[in-house]
Structure formats: C-alpha cells, structure tokens
Amino acid sequence: MSETTLDLSENAVYQARSERANDDKTVPRSSPLGAVAASRRTGASRQEVAQSILAEDESLECGSLGNTYFKRVSVAGVELKLEPLQPSIGTVVHGIDLATDIDHPEIVAFLRELWLDRRVIMFRDQAHLTREQHVAFAKQFGELGTRYGETDHEPNSPHDLSHPIDVPGIPEMLVLISDEKVPGAAANWHCDATWQKRPPMASVLLCREAPPIGGDTCFCDCYSMWEGLSKETKERVEHLTAVHVGAIIHQMDGKTPVSIHPVARTHPETGRTALYVQQGFVKRLAPEHGIPEAEERAFLAEMKSQEGRLEYTCRFRWEAGSIAMWDNRAVLHSASADFWPHRRHMERVTILDHDHSRRTPYYDPTAV
Ligand SMILES: [Fe+2]
Q1: Model's pTM, two decimal places?
Q2: What's the CA-to-centroid distance between 334 and ligand 1, angstroms?
Q3: Higher per-residue confidence, 45 vs 300
Q4: Is 176 within the bounds of a domain?
Q5: Which of 189, 263, 268, 356 has a CA positioned 20 to 30 A from the CA of residue 342?
C-alpha cells in the first residue's frame, strides 16, 4: 500500500454502498456517472458494463501529442511556463516544484497575483508532495480552513462517504474517492461550502489517482456570469440576497446548514462584481424581498443560463500529482462525472482569508 493509499475497509458508508455493487445493480442513471456508462454500454449487468469499459480503456497510453502555447516568465530565478487554458480564466504553471520553490516570498506573491487575475491556477507533476506539503502550500496564501471552511458548521452526516475518512494528523483534509463500487463526483456548478456564513476563500485540490480518461474539473468565471445578465435583470437583482442550502451530506447533528448571501458579490480583493448564485446550493431568493414566485423563477432561470457557458469556462484534465487552486469568490467549478468505473482519488484543503473582515460575502456598488 503506498503512503497516500487510504484503507476504506472500515468505512461504514463505503461498505454499505459497496453492497449495491455486489448486488450487481446498475449505477443510477439519475447520476451522470450512470448515464454516461449506460450510453457507452447498454443492456448488460453492472459488472459486465464495468469490465467492458475498463477493457476498452486499458490500451490507453500516457504520452504527449501536439503543441501547447505558453508564456515564459522568470521569478526569483525559477523559469516558469504559463499555459493559459482559456482566454480569461485558468493558467497551468509549469516548471515549479511546490515542495521547495514555494519558500520564495517573490514566488508566492507572483502566484497570488496570477491567481487573482486568472481565478484558478493549476500545477502538474507534484505527486511527490506529502500531505503536509500540500497543507504547507495552502498556508502560504491564507489560514488553513477545516474541511468546509470555518468551524461554524462542521458536517458529521452519516450519509457522507468522505466524512469518516481521516487523514492521520490532518483533520482539515477532505478525501474524495470514487471507484467502481462506490461512484460519485460533485457534478454540479458550485463554489465550495457557500452554505457557510463565511465560505472558504480558496480550495486546493490535489489528484492522487486520476482516471485514464474522464473526470476533468471545469471552472466557470463568475465575473462574466454577472456581465452576461441583461441590464434590466442586473438592476432588479443587484441588491437582493439568495438562500444557500447545504446537501444532506453537509448536515451536522441532523441539521441542514443554510446561509443567506448577496446575489451580486463584490470581490474583496479585486473590487469586481461576481454573480454569486450557484444553483448547486442556491434554492431561492431570500423571502423577505417579497419577489413574486413567477418573477423569482425567471430570475433564477436567467442566472442559471449563465452557468457553464463555454465562453466563460475552462476545463482541466487531471493526472496523478496535478493540483488546482481556485478562488471560490470568482469561479464556480464542477466535476465531470463521466469516468465510472474508473477510480479517482482527490484530496482537498480550504483556505480562509487572513483578513477576517473580507470573509463574509458582501456587495458594494461603489467598488471598482
Ligand atoms: Fe467543490
């Protein structure tokens, strides 16, 4: 067993869900994982579908094809190559070792500026990082958060597979594992833990094991989403607030977390306006506004239509040792649940803003 392999044999949620696989029940098609699997192979048992897909993907080789455009930049003597994934968001930073180069304050400052500008930055070839080094990297940018940000609400739901997976010595690390028996992926557009009163500023996700195909994470620019709304809608919704409701796996002592946040959010560092309505967690506008139901539905539908527009998004292909650090105040993200029955093992930590006054979302129409 490698140093980063986690034993799930004692995990009751994993074991309970494994029974479904043992019963040879198909992956539900209500989940994209099941729908994609069904589209690839139909009319067979779960095991037959899994085996045929795994056999089809077995001959894939890992290698490089084609060219990549990048910019060269030298920071503190480290030669970096910056690969933009899309015109306005997402840059892969090549040529850096996050175990050693991150000790240079100049490099940390450079990465922070790049991250604020590009909303999400990525790294490859960091499989050698220990979990402690993953945490140390995150702490260069702020305060280490709990699994879901601050301690106001720490989920302990018996339905959450990841909850009982403890990383020894690092209770803040959230482990996300999907495999043939127990598939799962956060396949909806969201920012992390917006059902918290003070959601985490950033998330740093490290891939320990990637499927050979599929399982990408997509990011969507919330500034463009705001700009994409009609002028009339912007004027109507800019001072409204919305209700963010956690999922069943986010319950603590049986209670579902709920928070109310502004629809238009001012980014506390860039001063720009982001649409802060992610319909992974937003269920409705705050009732005190008294918006008629039909009008509320129309607003939510127009906002929803902004999620995942190709022009606002970039897509990141994972390899073991890839890392993405995103700004939860400026981008949405969604996993691509298309990789069953392959295995995917991700590990996440959250970062809180050092400046406590910037942690609670707000809207300031006078900001730049
Ligand atoms: Fe997430």
Answers
A1: 0.94
A2: 7
A3: 300
A4: yes
A5: 189
